[in-house]
Amino acid sequence: MGDVLAPVQILLVEDNPQDIEITRRALERGRIRNELTVARDGQQALDILFGRAEGEKTKPGLILLDLNMPKVGGLEVLEKIKADPKLKRIPIVVLTVSTREEDVVRSYDLGVNTFITKPVRFEDFIKAVATIEEYWIVIATLPPE
Amino acid sequence: MTGLHRGITERKRAKDAPQKAHTELQLRLEERTAALAAANEQLRREVAEHREAAEDSRRLATVVRDSNDSVTLQDLEGKILAWNRGAERMYGWSEAEALQMNVRDIVPEDEYEQALAFLRATAEGETVDSLETQRVTKDGRRLDVWLTVTALKDDAGRTVAVATTERDITELKRTGEELRALTVSLERRVAERTALAEERAKELARSNAELEDFTYVVSHDLKEPLRGLEAFSQFLLEDYGDKLDEQGRKYVGILRDSATRMGALIENLLKLSRIGRTRGRYETVAVESLLEDVRRDMEFALEQKKVDLRIQPGLPTITYEPTLLKQVFENLISNAIKFNDKPQPVAEIACQQDDGAYTFSVRDNGIGIDGRYYDKIFQIFQRLGRREDYEGTGAGLTICKKIVEAHGGKIWVESRVGEGSTFSFTVPQTIRPGQKGKEEGNG
Fold it and tell me: Along the 145 residues of chain A, how does pLDDT read in single tens digits?
């Protein structure tokens, strides 16, 4: 958990522009100040996290991860993050359209912190995102960095 | 001895002679008479014995003569010496005819060698077991016969003739063969049918699975753009609402409602397809407490319409997938409320047990359903009421039907327009084979 006053760094890994916009808007509605970084696919997410991307290496306080993406998929990203000693404690929330049991099981096996199916209605989407933020940034006690 | 003495003796002898002869004669007569009587007795005994033996023979002969089996005698060359009525009936040759014949005449050509060997073996004193063979009738029909042979011997122990008993087993054999053939063909047909049924079942399962997968995938893929439609029409209202006139805002509102409605339809499609996809989370369900949960979940709607929800006490504990059973009751109760124009709507849940099944019923005092529509209402997206009057997607009863049938039951409705409807569904008391879940015995 970082300084409550400083905005929380959130990494959204999502290829669908529509869902990027919806998530961004939902996060704006939340009561927690945050700075959103968007990775448009799994490869970009890994580049950002492992410092291969342009600019500074980012270590977010929360990762929202889509599963179904071109090139490097969400499960692979999840596996790489959870295998890295420096990144593995970042809470990762899978936010996907999938309700496939094997996706759910595999995600938890790889160490995901929460699996959420994207709600269809925007109101529900806002609620879900707000709950994620609230829970992982305010309520949950996480190990020190 | 002196002379005197001799004289006396001779005189006496002469005097006694006739007397003595008489006595001897008498004696011999008695002996003869006794012997004669004994002989007579012996004769009578023998005659009686003979008569008895003759009687025995006669009886035996009758048995042999009238036997349904063919009983014949033949000498060692096969010449027929005796021919009973059974033989006449079986072979069609009269006794007079047969006595002019040889065994060869009633043996099929290809069996003759075997018959001759059999005859010889019997003559040589070999005991030959009964055997199955064939014979030919006067009109050329072949008979299957069961043959037994007995050697007849003279006093010196030589076989002089052979007695043969033949039983016609043609019919028996034919019936047996027919039965066997029938059994074989029946077995083959059963196997064919089974294979066909299995193939059909597999095909059906495959196409069902495909259909369910299809529905699932389509529903999911439909959700994606729908989420955009729903969200962005809202963003439009939020960000540009003041730039739109009333008509414009109304249109965006309709856009949103349409998206929301489509979302509900998709949600129901997904629910339907999930009933087929996720199978077998059977649990022991106390229906009464499950219904109390339903009552809690529906509290708002129940209070709003002042519904009297009556749950019959003592409802059974059954084996079911609890979330699905809940869906069935929720759908039925929600219909009971929705399609109800009475100031005091009533929904009454009861259960009856009979014939190894529970029948649950949800009775209401609502608007009722015309008998013409009893089937239609269970079809997906079929609605009887106007959309403006009754909200809902029209999938509720279809979902109920699918759930009930997936659990081996059936669902139906009885109704009177204006008085109300009773929806009933059955739950088998025993789990069908192949269904997962634990058996429980509570009734």
Answer: 444 567 889 999 999 888 999 999 988 887 788 889 999 999 999 999 988 665 556 689 999 999 988 888 999 999 999 999 889 999 999 999 887 888 999 999 999 999 998 888 888 888 888 888 888 888 888 887 6
Q: What is d(CA B23, CA B13) in angstroms, rounded to the nearest whole number?
A: 15
Three-state SS at B206: helix
Helix (H) or strand (E) holding A115: strand A114-117
Residues from chain A contacting residue B278 (CB–CB below 8 Å):
101
Residues in chain B whose Cβ is within 8 Å of chain A: 220, 223-228, 230-232, 234-235, 260, 263, 266-267, 278
Do the Cβ atoms of B230 and A122 come within 8 Å?
yes
What are phi and psi for residue A76, nearest 5 degrees?
A: -70, -40
Across the interface, whether the CB atoms of A120 and B267 are under 8 A apart is answered yes
Residue from B325, B242, B311 nearest B281 by CA? B325
The CA–CA distances, whole Å, from B145 to B80, B122, B148 equal 18, 18, 10
Tokens read off for B116: 């001759």
Whether B231 sits inside 8 A of A118 (CB atoms) is no
Nearest to B226 among A21, A25, A120 (CB): A120
Q: Which of B223, B231, B278 has its CB closest to that of A122?
A: B231
Q: Torsion-angle region of residue B385: left (phi > 0), alpha (psi -120 to 50) or beta?
A: beta
Q: How far apart are the first and last CA of chain A?
A: 8
Residues β-bridged to residue B338: none
With b for 16 or more beta-carbon neighbours within 10 A and e for fewer, the B291-309 pattern comes to: beebbeebeeebeeeebeb
State how far the Cα of B81 lies from the Cα of B371, in Å rounded to an integer: 88
**What pTM did the predictor assign?**
0.50
Structural element, H or E, at residue B95: helix B95-98
* Domains delineated in chain A: 2-139 (3.40.50.2300)
Asked whether A29 and A134 are in contact (CB, 8 A), the reply is: no
What are the start-end ranges of the E strands in B332-393?
Answer: 346-354, 357-364
Task: Check CB contact under 8 Å for B227 and A18.
Answer: yes
> Dihedral through CA B220, CA B224, CA B227, CA B230, nearest 10?
-100
**A125 in reach of chain B (CB within 8 A):** yes
Inform me whether the C-beta atom of residue A97 falls under 8 Å from chain B C-beta atoms. Answer: yes
A22 touches chain B (CB under 8 A): yes
- How far is Cα B427 from Cα B321, in angstroms, rounded to an integer? 12
